[in-house]
Automatic annotation (TrEMBL):
CDD domains linked: ThyX
Species assigned in the record: Aneurinibacillus thermoaerophilus
Gene Ontology MF, one: thymidylate synthase activity
GO biological process, one term: dTMP biosynthetic process
Species lineage: Bacteria, Bacillati, Bacillota, Bacilli, Bacillales
Protein's UniProt name: Thymidylate synthase complementing protein
Pfam family, one: Thy1
Amino acid sequence: MKLENYVTSTEDNVYAIKNVPTEVVGTVFAKVSRSPRSFRDNLYDLIKEDMLHLPDVDMISMFKESAAHAGGFMKKWGVDYGHSSIKEHAFAQFCIEGVSRWFTEILETVQAAKWLSFTEFSLRYQKPQDFVVPRELDQHPELKEHYITFGKECFRKYEELVPLFFALLKAKHPGMKDSAVEKLAYENARNVLPLATKSNVAVTGNARAISDAIAEMLSHEGYSSEVVEIAQKIRKHTTEVLPSLISHTEATPYLCSYMAEFYQRRVQEPETLPVYNGPFVEVTKDAAALAFTRSDDMVLGDLAKMNRFSELPAIMRAFGKRVAVTCSEGCHHQIIRHRAFDFSLQLPDTRYGLILPQEAVEASGTPEAERIINTLLTMRAESHRLYNELVENGLIGIAPYVVLNANARRLPFYANMYGLAHFVTLRKEEYAQDEIRSVAFQLERIFHDMEHSLPGFEMDRHLKK
């Protein structure tokens, strides 16, 4: 059986999946998040072992030769007549490999992200492979050399931090298996890695959302060649499997104006770069908030019967408060996946400061913790210097690549009760990463009054099966 029948490319770092049951694709996507091997590699293993019993035929190619496509039926009813909603019934599954962590954030925060699903390579479980060197740096050879030196030093420091965190964590959890301690050491050591670190991401989405995402990413023209080039590849490969419905993908004047505003520094240079011992949540006092008030026409059900899998009725999206979370880039990347919230995204900037890992803060004074903290402070200083140098050379679109995972970022958003009910329940789980657990605890305290205005409701239901 030929792999070419099931992927749109056997060589490109972007490719769509075809002729494979969606359940199989989703399962392999999940496996890839914990594996350094690509989706293609894992899929090919299943094909070689004949575990899938797939037909050895390319049905997509056959469809392209059909009267429905070649004769223009699909284009006429799906595009020309303006029935854009038809695009929501067709979907594609595709993979993007070897891209920067900064790119995956851009992809996962497009306006259409609410209708896309993502699975990303996890640095909590795997060691990093390499980092992206943006093509824009080819025009600045000396700056490119500084950038590469910085990236290599970050990776070298990562290797130094893993055993230091392992020692701290083993002392804290003497009964924990070494494999579990090692995972936590990876999780903490990634703080020193830059957003240039390579990642893989798998995506499922309908044709309308994919088309809108492509248009938005193409509007990064002039700021990031990586984003634009990957958007073009996504268009190419998703068009292979949805030949009639990937359309209207041009960057509009409005989207370009949005990006021009996004790529601006929003925080002033502080006298001293701040260092925080953990994340914190602020309530925006002067912003509109809507406290819960039940009306006679509101249907809620018996909230005391909700378990960890239950969701509040959609009407609860209206009630909430505007907050701002200041957290590390690593934690930020987890929070933005909660798409029930509407985020006001800020450009990564070293001026926001540094969030020290909880494990190092708790063990402060020990030789391992002091070495960890000193390493992060040293690399933060290098990151800040290089960030400013990139901006001064007109490369503000490349500056985010040198921001560390431990760097702070401020994330303003409207925290609605619907989204919070899920966020707090999921992120207070014992296995959740410690920093995002801290954010969940803080949000729960802030919304204590609203929680108790709902009879029988519990924000945290992670123990309720």
